[in-house]
Amino acid sequence: MSNAPIRAVLADDERLMREQLRARLTEVWPELDIVAEAKNGLEAVELTKEHKPDIVFLDIRMPGLTGVEAARQIAQLPDDDDWLVPEIVFITAYDQYAVEAFEQGVADYVLKPAERERLQLTVARIKKRLAQREGPATDFSDSAPVPLQQLLHKLSGQMNPTGKPAYLQWIQATVGQAIQMIPVEDVLFFISDEKYTRVQTAKVEALIRKPIKELVDELDPQVFWQIHRSTLVNARAIDGITRDFRGRQLVGVKGLTEKLEVSRSYTHLFKGM
User: Fold this and answer.
1) At what angle do helices 15-28 and 116-134 cross, to 10 degrees?
2) How far apart, in whole angstroms, are the C-alpha atoms of residue 261 and residue 263?
3) Can you tell me the distance from the alpha carbon of 89 to that of 139, in angstroms, rounded to the nearest whole number?
4) pLDDT digits (tens, 9 = 90+) for 64-105
5) How far is CA 125 from each of CA 18, 41, 130, 146, 158, rounded to the nearest angstrom?
6) β strands within 54-164, DSSP E
7) CA separation (Å) from 213 to 47, 89, 188, 204?
8) In whole angstroms, what separates CA 224 from the centre of its chain?
9) What is the pTM of this model?
């Protein structure tokens, strides 16, 4: 890892909870630089965009946007070589949100009030994940971490158990001069530019106007993995992972010669556990 300080944003609608978390973090991670505090989910997204932190601590229930909704927006912020999607830590008073996915490396959680021992474990996990970002990734593995979108969908379902998500089944897309209905299960990947999103199947290349950030919420995250802010790939269609001469990961797609670039924020998907 570089010598630059690790930077964090805290978000909780209760001032006393923010102060308590800040105090505990100062005890267990004194070198952590807490650059901003947010009182709600909207502020959390804006402050994350402004400060580009390494970590965001999000209260799971906040006014305006919940922590889960804020995390979805944060995960869609543009990433580049200078800033990756930050590590997410959810703060919750309810241990029913401590689902299995938290233990699989994609995010973490801390119960209110933040206890020193549990926070030390969280800090150790975050440091490990931040260090892994700097290291080489292994080939594609069945034991890869759960994608962040999958965890966020799962948490949304827990917070609203009667609102079971209905994922898209069909894509209405333009093929040449015609409109065609494409079964979602046939799509190999979606890739966006500034105006359109390309829908690729084994036989058809089509265009839609729906951006990736909307598709992320409408597609089954267990099937479609985000590997770049502009790319979703059908996990069942992944043929393998290679590297180009610059060391970037490239996803091979079954039946196609085209390779899809993996941005640094998503290389963890293809690390062996």
Assistant:
1) 70
2) 6
3) 27
4) 788 888 988 888 876 665 678 888 999 887 666 655 556 555
5) 21, 24, 9, 16, 24
6) 55-59, 87-92, 108-111
7) 19, 21, 17, 23
8) 13
9) 0.67
